[in-house]
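Figure 2 data, in text form.
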Amino acid sequence: MHTPVTIIGAGLGGLTLARVLHVHGIPVTVYEAESSPTARTQGGMLDIHDYNGQLALKAAGLMDEFHAIVLEGRQAMRVLDRDGTVLFEEADDGTGGRPEALRGELRRILLDSLPTGTVRWGHKVGSTRALGEGRYEVTFADGGTVVTGLLVGADGAWSRVRPLLSTATPEYVGKSVVETYLFDADTRHPAAAKAVGGGSMIAPSPGREIFAHRESGDTLHAYVGLSEPQDWFATIDFADAAAATARIAAEFDGWAPELTALITDCDTAPVLRPLYALPVEHRWDRVPGVTLLGDAAHLTAPNGEGANLAMLDGAELGGALAAHPDDLEAALTEYEQAMFVRSAEVGTFEGAEVHGIDSEKNTPQAMLKMFTEQSRQAT
């Protein structure tokens, strides 16, 4: 294949695509809005599944590098009632198919696997436009442009490439999470650390829930979910960290102190993260020379699959392009048809979104029932 590939976005999906293309000797350039690999933190823990994310890493030839960044023991999981009672606990015995790694470390090994200069940092896209005959012009915020015959939008929820293919835009799902961190947890926040355990912890209830994960360096990373309209959150001044923390904690009045400590004792200012999604059946007609992957193609509220799907998208698109070096449209058609089906069929993660936070069934007891049913089906 002689057509250089232009990727917009240096997230996990875009970088996986770039790596697979590099493995196959296909020229590729990635344009990223961030000024450098360390311009911002890259989020928390990711469980990389053996049926999608790990398949992508195998295609990229990076399984050894992946195993080196896995945090042992973090597959452990527990479900707590709001009074702090542990109702379910599953240890990490090392045999599960969802080893955990930090998103930033996963991005690092992908970046390290690419030739210097593959990623062009500080290139924020302002607009894209079709030039005809399958060619596209990308205009950057600084006024620079690039023209390409194969454009891939790996640029997330608010993709600037998506309008070339689809009129769909993400919509608020009715839930936001407030993100908090507790550092040196075992010594400075022992009650919260004990509640979370060695891996992840979920305390669900209708309209309110707390999910937390033990990361590296004795850090607890929590996502406090609230089912409220955006206008409700707009009344909270998140620039005033103390006031915002108190306001969010008040919504969990009566919960066990070791759980609410994940809010009140946070060592960073709470960060509001509204959740958006594209329609589940989002798809488009084939348009020559352009496609999407990851959140740009199938954004959902967090369900444990987003990063895995983005990486698999990248790997499969790269594989299709390598398999059809003389027929770009055949490659894109093959990739999109499989991706549409895969993204629509993804089930919900056994956690925060299992019943939907608004559901009366978003309780520890209902979650335990689901685990039991899944165990029976597996046997």
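Caption note: The chain has 13 helices and 17 strands.
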